[in-house]
Amino acid sequence: MRLTDREIWAALHGIVFGGLLLLGFSAAVGGLWSLRREHMADEGVTIRVRRLVNGLWALAGFAWIAVITGTWIIYPWYTQEGGAQAALHRSPSTSGWDTFGMEWKAHLAWMAPVLVTAAAAVVGHFRDELAEADRRPVRRALIALLAIAFVATAAAGVLGALVTKQAAVR
Predict the structure, then answer these.
(1) Which H or E run includes 45?
(2) Helical pair 136-166 and 42-69, crossing angle rounded to 10 deg
(3) Measuring CA to CA, which residue among 144, 125, 126 is closest to residue 33?
(4) Are 101 and 19 in contact (CB under 8 A)?
(5) Residue 93 above 80 pLDDT?
């Protein structure tokens, strides 16, 4: 099996960076959900918060890499003359994917790195204090932020897969 350069970039973008991003959300939410001082010693809180901060910044990095490679490497291949976008236009059954699929995917995807970066910054700011009982609303807000980022990532991934199924980058 041989892959073209474009297919390799598409696989890196969607499967590697996007896949790691989707998997990382569960780890981040689990880390925030279980971060309670009453369940562990002070040293345990410090270790888990450090792991959570590092994990969220890594997650933000994957989100930025996925969106940047999608926007500036893969998306132009769809829009170039004779590209996949032209193939979507030629068929009446797929012409809607050009506007709905590609445009929504491109705009929706940018929410994820912004929201994950915000979550990483908030966790980095509060650090050990985030494990306190009175910070439960902050933890819940961070979980909601990550849930919104997950939904944006999943929706962009599904739209990307559907567009690729209709008109693959070659």
Answers:
(1) helix 42-69
(2) 30
(3) 144
(4) no
(5) no
Sign (positive/negative) of CA torsion 148, 55, 118, 108?
negative
Q: Distances from the Cα of 109 to the Cαs of 4, 48, 74, in angstroms?
A: 25, 29, 13
DSSP states along 6-18: HHHHHHIIIIIIH
The tokens for 112 are 């994820």
- What integer is the mean pLDDT of 133-146? 96
For the stretch 7-52, pLDDT in tens is: 899 899 999 999 999 999 999 999 999 999 888 898 999 999 999 9
Total number of domains in the chain: 1
Q: What pLDDT does 164 receive?
A: 76
CATH of residue 25's domain is: 1.20.120
Question: Looking at residue 165, what is its pLDDT?
Answer: 76
Helix (H, G, I), strand (E, B) or coil at 82: coil
Average of per-residue pLDDT values in the chain: 87
Q: How far apart are CA 109 and CA 111, in angstroms?
A: 5
**Going by C-beta distance under 8 Å and a sequence separation of 6 or more, which residues neighbour residue 163?**
78, 84, 88, 97, 101, 102, 105
Q: Could you tell me the residue range of the domain that residue 161 belongs to?
A: 5-166
